[in-house]
Write a sequence for this structure.
């Protein structure tokens, strides 16, 4: 086993980041700090008007509500289910220089998208003039978008001839062109195979939509009517919000409103700094390995995120990530938005989207040319369904480790790790009447919340990176798409997602294709090994799976009055799907896909027996799985406490290769708790009285390390493709005294031993 030390970043990391020309052309765009703005551009920038407390609160909430209503207008005017129901959009209000005032409750990793776009316009387009009533459009991932399907509109608001603020939104469009329906091109090898990227263009001039540019954008889409309406929804939402801001300025005066904006940002910064002060300085790292950068590719690719906290600042980098490849890349815009959202969503839930002050304290410094900060001309269109979910999980896991190192107040803020994929389906085709359809199944947003430091995740609890998301009712899904929903059912709470605090249950969905002339599923997930790794000894999440049977008898059985709800109940020709690729669909095909459970928190042997019993009574798990996963023996309707203690001791003895385990002991009074079992005592790692080395080093080297094939953990992780699955092991890091897990990870065979936590 090779050992690497990720505890200390390279000494010249900051210098190297600053030396790169982040220009938005050759690589992602990083604005100057502050942005370089033309001298003749008049800005309104008051910070010190006399504002009494009552007026401050009235204006603050008026700004917040205007931004919330901005999002509501988008969802009411859009005709796309992914916007109307799944809330795959974002609204934001920003200062004259593009600093965030309020972010809406939609997709949180869009947080940086509009700010980057505005600052790019200020630095590169403002010389053309900024006029009231103008709206700029862009979907360029090398400037501000996460991928081409997410189109941003930004509008300056001028007061008295001065640039007062910006209103912006970002919205996922169902189809923006490209070679595959849904515009997430898993076969793309570079950006020239992706849909068109539009650098910032003025699509509305002084209140009038430019018909030529609207036509050019709509012309790219397979669903032009829906695309035109979604574009008009974005424009209409901006105009209605502009009217609210102008009315507020007319009532209270520009100096008062701008002072409230700036004080709001400053207040958020103070809250963030206060909470950072309750976290010790250190560095936390996490990585995930994925299969294949293109269909047919079987190589493995690593994503890594490292979070360093020093004083009142957080620095995030992506060292340890593999070079950009195939279609599984993202740019700086996506990476920085994900980093910001995984921090603010957990640390500042009470700020209602007022995150601009926190952003001042978060430095995102990726290495260019890697999978998570790709250089031009890397393909990024497929990132919205794949890479984004992977990097969200990697970044959130590192942040969760950081929060679990803080005071109890900070530990309790952790939301657990999100699923590293939605596992949903994207595709399209032609209905029997000749109408083109785009199918974007967003039911994965029903989600599973991971186990947390103090409680279980929520079953079908959504995704915390899009707080107000929802999924359509079955009838609504069937109205908008040529699919019959045969079943949605929760997965059992078993080995996958188990922990001291288990993850919320995932679910399985079964679909019947009806009413099409032909079509294609262009995106699905069918894993050989799980990606979601548990926190501090928790079990990995579920495998994301997809299965399809062609020419089934499902419709025939329905016609005869027989109900069908499960994939294995129908007969047909099953196609064995690779991890990444596409498959054609026809009428009477049946598709089953799994939206995985997230991962657990803490060793499952530490779960309270009564919590396991409650899951058995609630039919979330069985008595057999209670003993297999949690070591809890249930006889009748009760826990057999003596048999449970015996069984759990047997498991710990087996983990320690026959050594008799000790019991948990209280740490010294001056100990700093890190996760569950690990503590720092006088600068050294401590676990139940055993010294595991200096806290600036890798405690894993002194733990008991136990490895086995990942698929041999249990039937939940077994797959048909053993060759692919056996490239991975489940690696446990055990307390040498008790045999309880300090942590655990899924790792490639012979992978380097990552230093995941160090304290300074």
């Amino acid at each position: 086993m090779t050992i690497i030390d990720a505890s200390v970043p390279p000494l010249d990391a900051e210098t190297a980041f600053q030396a790169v020309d982040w220009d938005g052309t050759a690589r992602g765009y990083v604005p100057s700090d502050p942005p370089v703005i033309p001298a003749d551009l008049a800005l309104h920038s008051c910070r010190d008007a006399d504002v009494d407390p009552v007026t401050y609160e009235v204006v603050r909430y008026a700004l917040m509500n205007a931004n919330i209503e901005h999002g509501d207008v988008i969802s009411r005017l859009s005709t796309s289910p992914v916007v109307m129901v799944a809330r795959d959009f974002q609204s934001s209000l920003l200062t004259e220089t593009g600093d965030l005032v309020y972010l809406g409750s939609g997709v949180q990793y869009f947080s940086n998208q509009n700010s980057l776009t505005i600052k790019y316009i200020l630095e590169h387009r403002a010389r053309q003039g900024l006029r009231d009533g103008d709206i700029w459009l862009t979907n360029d991932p090398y400037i501000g978008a996460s991928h081409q399907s997410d189109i941003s509109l930004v509008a300056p608001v001028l007061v008295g001839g001065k640039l007062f603020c910006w209103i912006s939104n970002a919205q996922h469009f169902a189809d923006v062109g490209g070679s595959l329906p849904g515009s997430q091109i898993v076969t793309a090898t570079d950006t020239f195979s992706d849909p068109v990227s539009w650098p910032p263009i003025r699509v509305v001039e002084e209140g009038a939509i430019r018909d030529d540019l609207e036509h050019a954008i709509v012309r790219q889409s397979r669903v032009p009517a829906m695309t035109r309406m979604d574009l008009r929804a974005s424009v209409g939402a901006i105009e209605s919000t502009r009217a609210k801001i102008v009315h507020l300025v007319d009532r209270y005066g520009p100096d008062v409103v701008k002072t409230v904006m700036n004080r709001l940002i400053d207040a958020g910064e103070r809250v963030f700094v206060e909470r950072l002060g309750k976290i010790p300085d250190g560095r936390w790292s996490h990585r995930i390995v994925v299969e294949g950068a293109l269909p047919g590719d079987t190589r493995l690719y690593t994503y890594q995120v490292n979070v360093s906290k020093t004083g009142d600042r957080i620095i995030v980098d992506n060292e340890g990530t593999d070079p950009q490849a195939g279609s599984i890349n993202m740019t700086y815009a996506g990476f920085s938005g994900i980093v910001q959202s995984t921090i603010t969503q957990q640390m500042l839930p009470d700020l209602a989207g007022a995150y601009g002050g926190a952003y001042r304290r978060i430095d995102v410094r990726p290495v260019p040319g890697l999978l998570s900060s790709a250089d031009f001309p890397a393909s990024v269109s497929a990132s919205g369904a794949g890479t984004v979910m992977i990097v969200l999980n990697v970044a959130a896991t590192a942040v969760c480790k950081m929060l679990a190192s803080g005071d109890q107040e900070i530990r309790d803020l952790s939301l657990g790790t999100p699923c590293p994929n939605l596992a949903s389906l994207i595709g399209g085709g032609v209905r029997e009447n000749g109408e083109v359809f785009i199918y974007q199944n967003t039911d994965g947003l029903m989600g599973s919340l991971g186990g947390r430091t103090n409680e279980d995740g929520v079953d079908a609890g959504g995704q915390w990176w899009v707080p107000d998301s929802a999924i359509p009712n079955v009838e609504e899904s069937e109205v908008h798409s040529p699919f019959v929903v045969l079943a949605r059912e929760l997965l059992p709470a078993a080995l996958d997602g188990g922990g001291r605090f288990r993850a919320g249950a995932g679910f399985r969905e079964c679909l019947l294709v009806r009413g099409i002339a032909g079509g294609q599923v262009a995106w699905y997930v069918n894993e050989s090994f799980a990606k979601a790794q548990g926190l501090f000894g928790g079990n990995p999440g579920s495998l994301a799976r997809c299965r399809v049977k062609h020419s089934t008898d499902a419709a025939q059985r329905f016609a005869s009055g027989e109900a069908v709800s499960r994939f294995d109940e129908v007969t047909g020709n099953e196609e064995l799907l690779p991890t990444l690729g596409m498959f054609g669909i026809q009428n009477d095909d049946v598709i089953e896909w799994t939206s995985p459970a997230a991962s657990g928190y803490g060793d499952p042997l530490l779960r309270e027996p009564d919590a396991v019993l409650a899951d058995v009574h609630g039919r979330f798990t069985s008595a057999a799985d209670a003993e297999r996963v949690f070591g809890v023996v249930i006889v009748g309707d009760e826990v057999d406490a003596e048999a449970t203690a015996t069984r759990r001791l047997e498991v710990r003895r087996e983990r320690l290769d026959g050594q008799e385990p000790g019991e948990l002991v209280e740490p010294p009074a001056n100990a700093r708790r890190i996760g569950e079992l690990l503590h720092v005592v006088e600068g050294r790692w401590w676990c139940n009285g055993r010294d595991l080395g200096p806290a600036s080093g890798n405690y894993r080297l002194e733990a008991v390390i136990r490895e086995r094939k990942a698929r041999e953990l249990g039937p939940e992780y077994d797959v048909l493709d053993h060759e692919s699955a056996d490239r991975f092991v489940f690696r446990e890091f055990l307390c040498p005294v008790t045999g309880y897990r300090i942590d655990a990870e899924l790792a490639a065979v012979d992978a380097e031993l990552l230093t995941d936590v160090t304290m300074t």
About this structure: The CA atoms of residues 6 and 755 lie 5 Å apart.
